[in-house]
Amino acid sequence: MTTKVALVTGASSGIGEATAKQLREAGYTVYAAARRVERMRHLTKSGIRPLAMDVTDEEPMRAGIDQILAEEGRIDVLVNNAGYGSYGAVEDVPMEEARRQFEVNVFGAARLTQLVLPHMRQQHSGTIVNITSMGGKISTPLGAWYHATKFALEAISDCLRMEVKPFGIDVVVIEPGGIKTEWPAIAADNVRAVSSSGPYAPQGNAVAQSLTSELAARRSSPPELIAKTITRAVTSRRPKTRYAVGFGAKPLIFLHGALPDRTFDALIRRAVGVPSS
Hints:
Largest sheet: 7 strands, parallel
Shape: globular
Number of helices: 10
Strand content: 5-15%
Structural class: alpha/beta
Strand order of the largest sheet: 3-2-1-4-5-6-7
Distance between the termini: 63 Å
Helix content: 40-55%
Oligomer: single chain
């Protein structure tokens, strides 16, 4: 029986690292990709193979796919997990940073998908897993650019799923809720950098505090929960198109669809602690 091969991006910590470990335990040959390969050295003890890859740089993406195909002859799973949260008021965030958010969270995933699809089509099988967020279905104050990327990746996934169905390829969207990773601290640093002073300061400081509060940390789900969900999806004969998992994901997505917009806005602003006036 042929061993299946998986590539996981953003694998130096959090969801990516947990997913690489889970897939390895499930019997996959796993390549773990991230910019800082030194942070993945410990994964080699589990038989995971680190790859240096920046998803905003064409050359290492091509080289990584070429290496996997040269060594394994196939690629069965792509987990597009690399991403970060660029927070700040729309008026405050420089357009250069907004573009970078799209480069990392959307275009990197899209380009890797383009690179693996010819090989998946040839073998008439494969699964592409896009890690979006409950933030791909709902919005929160000062998260416009982050949410825009996740909404975009949701749409790309829906279109891609229809396009590749004739070739035996599945497309799965994972929508995590609150997860214990480095992501909240990075998002909080970003919002403080651009919106902790000036007219949006009350909102910026409230959002940063909410992201890094002890309460948020206690409520957040472990990244292993997402990793188990991804593994369940890629090993399923007929995976769901979407999995909303982790703290708050299902109820907030439900409420977003059930409540009027302004009512939902008020709920989210109250939860984040953003002043209404």
